[in-house]
Specification:
Layout lengths: L2 E7 L1 H12 L3 E6 L1 H10 L1 E5 L4 E4 L5 E3 L10 E4 L6 H11 L5 E5 L5 H8 L4 E7 L3 E5 L2 E4 L5 E4 L5 H9 L4 E4 L2 H12 L1 H8 L3 H5 L2 H20 L15 H5 L3 H7 L13 H8 L9 H10 L5 H14 L8 H8 L7
Parallel strand pairs: 1-2, 1-6, 2-5, 3-10, 6-7, 7-8, 11-12
Antiparallel strand pairs: 3-4, 8-11, 9-10
Helix pairs in contact: 3-4, 7-9, 7-12, 7-14, 9-13, 9-15, 13-14
């Protein structure tokens, strides 16, 4: 049986790895001691908004706080925060016993490249999770929205395809993964809005003022991508340039046209909200900040995303994090023309 290691097990890692383990996969987890204690007591409970309900008993969960030496893994799913990518790469390089397939299931667009620099003997692939996952405590992880697992197309994935499919997480292999990553990043620009609203995603997206904030960030992102000659893929039913228009629609029209976008568990929130809630640094520098850096390379600025990045960092330090939609929109509007 192929060995799978989830490196940096948090909400995403425990959910994905847990579903694989529930379907008979040989899965080990590496993560924080706090989570390890929780899983050793409660095991894993995996649910989703469509009614899936899977369990892995505590006795069957293999969880380490230190990377095993040697690490005998055929597939490594890297789910650490983007700030920990290089440290994770160095750790894996020191312990991987044989050439392995390493998949980055992280936010941002450059993590797989960073892993490749330190893991030249391994097959490193970019991947992404297109759904929201909530840590409900006591080993319970819940998928709160629709979405797939996208991964860079490669023949080395063949031995794992069937297990992912049986677990209800089919691998959607993409030939142009970088375009998909930029498209996902545009969608993830809402993470900062959600974190600053302090509301569940469904409630936040139901309010036009918050959606207009996201639209501002996306319009700016699309402008910068055009200047950099980057064409984001279509990963939803609408092309990327249509999404800000939909977000800016009046509430009644948005509800009618975006029913699928609101197919979200009422309690689902963004990972950035979760990080703020437990006092962890967020990944805003690898989402909104990624566009700020790209803008600089093409001689432009990204003032909306720059300000959102600043506001999230201020919230990390204890400043305001319960913005009303109108207040946040007023904070961003002078820096960009509304769509």
């Amino acid at each position: 049986m192929k060995e799978i290691c989830v490196f940096g097990a948090g909400s995403i890692g425990c959910y994905v790895g847990g579903r694989l383990a529930a379907m008979g996969g040989s899965v080990s987890f590496v993560g924080r001691e706090r989570l390890g204690r929780e899983l050793r007591e409660h095991g894993l409970h995996l649910t989703d908004y469509q009614g899936a309900d899977m369990k892995v008993p505590a006795a069957a969960v293999r969880f380490d706080t230190e990377v095993p030496r040697p690490l005998r893994a055929d597939l490594v799913l890297v789910t650490v925060k983007s700030s920990g990518t290089e440290e994770a790469a160095r750790a894996l390089d020191a312990v991987l016993e044989k050439p392995s397939v390493v998949v980055s299931l992280q936010n941002g667009v450059g993590n797989a490249d960073a892993l490749r620099q330190h893991l030249p003997s391994h097959t490193v692939l970019a991947g992404m999770v297109l759904f929201n996952t909530v840590n409900s405590g006591k080993g319970h992880f819940h998928q709160g929205s629709q979405g797939a697992l996208d991964v860079e197309k490669h023949a080395a994935l063949a031995p794992f395809v069937d297990l992912f499919a049986r677990a209800g997480l089919p691998l959607n292999q993409q030939a142009a993964m970088r375009s998909v990553q930029w498209a996902k990043l545009l969608l993830n620009l809402n993470n900062a809005i959600n974190a600053l609203s302090d509301l569940p995603l469904k409630e936040q997206l139901s309010q036009r003022a918050y959606r207009r904030c996201t639209a501002l960030a996306q319009v700016e992102g699309l402008r910068i991508l055009r200047a950099a000659d980057i064409r984001p893929a279509q990963v939803t039913s609408l092309p990327p340039h249509w999404i800000p228009r939909l977000l800016s629609a009046p509430d009644w029209l948005f509800r009618r046209l975006a029913a699928k976008m609101l197919t979200i568990d009422p309690h689902a929130r963004s990972s950035m909200w979760e990080d703020l809630n437990v006092g962890r640094p967020t990944e805003v520098d690898w989402i909104n900040g990624e566009l700020v850096r790209l803008a600089a390379t093409v001689g432009q600025r990204a003032p909306v995303n720059e300000r959102l990045t600043q506001l999230v960092h201020e919230a990390e330090k204890g400043s305001q994090r319960r913005w009303s939609g109108g207040s946040l929109l007023a904070e961003l509007t002078p820096r960009h023309m509304t769509p």
